[in-house]
Amino acid sequence: MPFIIDHPINAKWPAETPDVLQLYSFPTPNGVKVSIMLEEIGLPYEAHLVTLADADVKSPEFLSLNPNNKIPAIIDPNGPDGEPVTVFESGAILIYLAEKTGKLIGKTAAEKATIIQWLMFQMGGLGPMLGQLGYFYKFAGSEIEDPRPRERYINEAKRLLAVVDKQLEGQEWIAGDYSIADIAIAPWLSALAFYEAEEIVGLNDLANVVAYIERFHARPAVQKGINIPPRP
Fold it and tell me: Is 59 part of any domain?
């Protein structure tokens, strides 16, 4: 019997094609990293919509796959040495899929190191800081009268965007050739429009970043993966 059939998550999100990779996700900046990656590398997969509601992400079924109750997560029935493997955390999934297929992670150890460092830049800096910017600028945190949290994240967002803009000077992609670093970074840059924060962080003054976002969204795999699984 396929591994996925016996996994607790299958009780809530049953697999129709259990012999292909199973994706449990929602189209947030972190979620679409994996669907875009899967479209880029052409690996067959089945997507399951896991909403951000507690009834989904804090359900016993989802916690059996990701104890941190965050999307995305995957089950690969055809993992290393033919054994199934489960992976959570979007950056870890990108690395796993890149190494599994030998794609979008560089051709040399030096290229891989450069790509991984920019992936970590997104995981440890750009994503968390822009997420806090969204909270304090657009969502519930915007109601806090103390301006210091909002100013902190606006200023940090500006600093990080300047780093990206400088890195893109003279090149199309963040680490040389298109890679998992771009798949990690570009969706978070695009989130600035959703947060209605483009003007406050001066995005339009950063020509390299603006062109980079446009280039990223012109890719067919991005256009398809950006809404997988589709929002309800």
Answer: yes
